Amino acid sequence: MTLTASRPLSRAAGAARAGRPPVRWPLAALLAVLSLLTVSPFVAMVVVALSPAGRPTVPGRWPESLTLDNLTRVLSSTGFVSWTVNSLVYSVVSVVVILLTASMAGYAFAKKRFPGRDAMFWTFLATMMVPFQATLIPTFVLVNELGGVDTFWGLIVPTLANSQAVFLMRQFILGLPDELFDAAKVDGASELRVYWTIVVPLTRPVLATLGVFVFLWHWNDFLWPLIVGQSDTTRTLTVGLTTLRTEEMQLSTLMASATISVVPCLVVFFLLQRYLVNSIAMTGLK
Fold this sequence. Notes:
By secondary structure, the protein is an all-alpha fold. Helix content is about 75%, strand content about 0%. The two termini are about 45 Å apart. The model is unreliable at about 1-10 (pLDDT under 50).
């Protein structure tokens, strides 16, 4: 009994001496099952997108052959391409402007001293508790009076005031040492130079993380583009895919459209994955 009980302990001690954490097989198996359940809808979407139109496919049976005809048909359609370009413009412009304004505001709220700073910050942060649906009608009326309906500026500008982004940047910049900013001021650096040479490089991981979140928010946004974008010139991809459901279209073609719409999100995530890991690591160290 002593030898049997000592085997798991000796294995764990050997793994610790080798620098490897002991493997917890029940937890690993549970995580593997959950991962498969999470990925299975995406796999089914891709399989249906590659299945011949009108042929049996998942979940009933595995398709006999795979084809790229559905993807080619979607990419050759004029409406889908214009919707994708509109979504890219909507998402990329919003990311650039929000990262710029949020980092500047976060730097001001974290390191600058001015009357009413804390009251202004907490008032701005309180807007997070107001649901977007409560301000939807007044915002639309204002944009309509200014002539912003069915325009890109009317689509983008109302979404730029992001209190979550400002809060995230402010909390991160609070952890930066004040000596860096004091040394820059002693050297005669202007506020713009301090922001560009100190704040931006040191906040690059959190900027990348925030950029991914903002891109996904705007790429998957549906309600506001549905109301403002009333023609194909400003209609985004999420709204366009919904209009396809009202038409008589094969399920494989619809899944091909959805598959292509996921590709930009995956590309952005894999390009900025290193910064996401660095941001999590730095947060743990702080």
